[in-house]
Design brief:
By secondary structure, this protein is an all-alpha fold. The chain has 7 helices and no strands.
């Protein structure tokens, strides 16, 4: 097979392999030996696919290929997740909190728990905890009785307070259980 046909085929195969590997890699981690073995195999396939894909970019595009490889690596979902964990990305902001609905605030509260769990530095965790406090303060400003009822009902850090709060323009639902 001529090289001008072979390189694009390798390139496409590497991209497909990389996509499958990173999709499998991003699933929740299991602790069994077979799961760890599978994860090691996925990592190996990912590394090999990445090398082939990078080589394909450089061969097909020349010097511009290496720049494209760098851009693709820096903007990859894995790199973005790593950066957000290191920087303590906090889902949503409260700039103009009145623009957010109570349901959106409740969703931000829940999403921020996931961000807190994934944070890797003390600084990132502190920023997220401070933002979670702002979410609670805003919910208390809007619905003090509902928030107090939720907190008194064994609220959890990952819990959803929305069933105790008014739904923007509706009456507060009865707090059962």
């Amino acid at each position: 097979m001529p090289a001008d046909v072979l390189y694009p085929l390798f390139f496409i195969a590497a991209l497909l392999g990389l996509t499958v590997a990173t999709t499998s890699w991003s699933k929740t981690e299991e602790t069994t030996i077979s799961a760890r073995s599978g994860r090691s195999a996925v990592i190996a396939v990912t590394v090999i696919s990445a090398i082939v894909a990078c080589a394909g970019h450089v061969v097909l595009l020349g010097a511009a290929g290496s720049g494209l490889v760098v851009v693709l690596c820096v903007t990859s979902p894995a790199a973005m997740r790593w950066c957000s964990r290191r920087l303590g990305h906090i889902p949503g902001t409260l700039g103009g909190s009145d623009a957010l609905t109570t349901a959106e605030l409740c969703r931000l509260w829940q999403d921020s728990y996931e961000a807190l769990r994934d944070a890797t530095t003390a600084t990132a965790r502190l920023r997220i905890v401070q933002t979670r406090q702002l979410y609670l303060d805003e919910l208390e400003r809007r619905e003090p009785v509902g928030l107090k009822t939720w907190l008194g009902d064994n609220a959890s850090a990952a819990g959803d307070p929305s069933r105790f709060l008014a739904r923007d323009g509706e009456d507060v639902p009865p707090a059962d259980g």
